[in-house]
Amino acid sequence: MEKINILIADDQTLMCDGLKTILELEENFNVMGTAKNGEEVLELCKANKPDLILMDIRMPKMDGVKCTKILKTLYPEIKVLVLTTFNDTEYIIEALNYGAAGYILKDIEGDALIKAINDAYKGSLMMPASVAKKLAEKLSQSTVVVNAHKEEKVLKDFSQREEEIAKMMTMGFNNKQIASSLFISEGTVKNYISNIYSKLGTSDRFEAVKLLNIMFQNT
Fold first, then answer.
1. Is there a domain that residue 201 lies in?
2. Of 72, 133, 207, 219, most Cβ neighbours within 10 A?
3. Model-level pTM?
4. Alpha helix segments (H runs only) across the chain
5. Which residues form a coiled coil (predicted)?
6. Which pLDDT value is given to residue 136?
């Protein structure tokens, strides 16, 4: 059985110990260490890279969001599951934008935590229903305002689903994460993105995201 090497990052000793106890009961989990802040996470990853990190958001010295940003730049293959008691949309968006594999709340039950780790390791986007709902509400808050600029005309031409996917693209979601979050197939996501590219006049994702960021900032 393939082992998943896990690092737990949380400044609360009791939380770390509790998570460690739960995870070590699983045959395919190996808890390779714990860290109390983002700086310790980066130091530990230099010596022995884990497969997945359970990353608390609120830690001293370096918080989980900043650590995720640095970590995914240095070690893009490491999965990061953001772990927090704070059901905060801004944190969700920022962490996902930096490459986190998902966002789970600290009151998650043991069985659900184990499933989340296994699914995240396989590449699924992990997000509790309450968080997904809140994120979806934020995505639908802004409306397209028509003015004389070309970018507003392009946004006006987007369907509701295209606009939703375009916003998720600017947040750093990949096709698989978009599909998982919206409960549609990756093939369907690719079709929508092809339509978005066509309306933007580009076939490059980086260029498309850059244009979309400008468009949404101007609305």
1. yes
2. 72
3. 0.62
4. 13-23, 38-47, 64-74, 89-97, 110-121, 129-139, 150-157, 160-170, 175-182, 186-200, 205-217
5. none
6. 64
